[in-house]
Amino acid sequence: MSAYHQLLAATVDYLKQQKANGQRHVVVDPAKLAALMRAPQAAQPHPPTTQSSSVSAKTDSFVELREMVQACTQCPNLVSSRKNVVFGVGNESADIMFIGEAPGADEDAAGEPFVGKAGQLLTKIIETMGLKRDQVYIANILKCRPDTPGKRYGNRPPSGDEMATCSPWLHRQIEFIQPKIIVALGKTAVEGLLEQQVAITRFRGTWQTYRDIPLMPTFHPAYLLRNQSLTEKRKIWEDMLAVMEKAAMPISEKQRGFFLPR
User: Fold this and answer.
1) How much is the pTM?
2) Which of 73, 100, 205, 245 is the most buried (most CB within 10 A)?
3) Shortest CA distance to 116 belongs to which of 79, 153, 165?
4) 208: helix, coil or strand?
5) Domain 49-256 = CATH 3.40.470.10
6) Whether residue 156 has pLDDT greater than 70
């Protein structure tokens, strides 16, 4: 089944579910309605390529990659619930790239990663390193917010299938940016990049490698929103100090002393 027909089938199923629940009126985004009404492309005379190979073959520029990601309809459940595709933001030639798991509600609304409370904390961490947000690049494993059927609030981690479908976009993104260091924020980001199950408490703070690029696993900033002790803040800050040292950035004595007990 083509991506178009998958999207159409998912939309029909969603509307049937709404009708069964007694819903008689639905609000439709005009842009999404236009996408549904657009006729699918004619079948190709040769077998379709995999998503990974098509990404490599069809994207010759970062701008083109962004356009392809924003038009992606491979996950019908995410397409039907998303407000925006969250591609990434920052310096496209950054030495340091931060990668999280997936957009939340704030990011879905803004179309930009890490703009909610966890994102504001990430910005503070970046600034404490002596950098600005627009000097690094920030992205996620998943480009769309994971849907939460029947729930008005809250988030869920992306599924394995969703990550496998979306990860070729991120891999190509990294190829264009060519960062010297990747910081993986949280368990899901580490697993998505290393393609293996990990225990974040064991991997955190230990250098790993993603396709010859040094990768530093650390806790997601949201973790600090729930655990604000100096001990936990220091763990993440030690990871950032290691990143700064690897990037040959200057480190002051004041920076080395952040979050240590007095």
Assistant:
1) 0.78
2) 100
3) 153
4) strand
5) yes
6) yes
